[in-house]
Amino acid sequence: MDKVDKLKVQALLTKLANGKNVSVRDLRNTLGDSAVEEYESRWRAELDRREMFTNKPTAIKEYEDILKQADFANSKADGIKQIGARSKVINGVNSQTRLRNSAEALYETALTKLEEIIHCDRSLEIWFDRQLDFGFGSQLSIDVEGIPRVVTSRSARKQTSGFAANVTKEDIKRELLEYALVATAAVTITAAQKQLLSKRLASINSERD
Q1: What is the mean pLDDT of each run of 10 residues along the chain (209 residues)?
Q2: Which residues of 5-37 are buried (b: 16+ CB within 10 A; e: fewer)?
Q3: Whole-model pTM above 0.85?
Q4: Cα(119)–Cα(201) distance, rounded to whole angstroms?
């Protein structure tokens, strides 16, 4: 890459860290035209990725519908203050227990549905907030905490936004600037190594003479 001024790069990184704007002109003046082309290419890719997550596949919508029903039953069970003998009992089962059982059954249905979805199309795994391992020792479970969440949901129990997490223009600029610093350091180290090697060779030649 072209030689860059490390102090200028660090100054721009400081601006970003302080929440200030780094313009495309700043980027061009500091890193050159190739960096601006890379920035624009990455931003176009980011916009395409965001567009993809606005078009939710039917299978994902069906999974979410089941999950909403399960969460609703679980939430109602949490909201019941009076349980046991003072709760409405039908066939020996109180209201809270019935709701818990209903939620568990729905979570199980959702997990079964999810396994079917991923079996049919593994690429849909990017829509979920955790690793989808259905084998022995899996961390997935049929309860409010262990059930996978769709990455675009607003659930407080969502573990991560994964591939749906937005990358900002500032994020891209920061990555390009940080890479430039690393690349410059690598070039400096290489030059230093060459200089040391040159000195050693000169010393060896001197001893031979």
Answers
A1: 80 94 94 94 94 93 97 87 54 75 95 96 95 88 95 92 90 93 67 62 57
A2: eeeebeebbebbeeeeebeeebbeebbeeebbe
A3: no
A4: 62
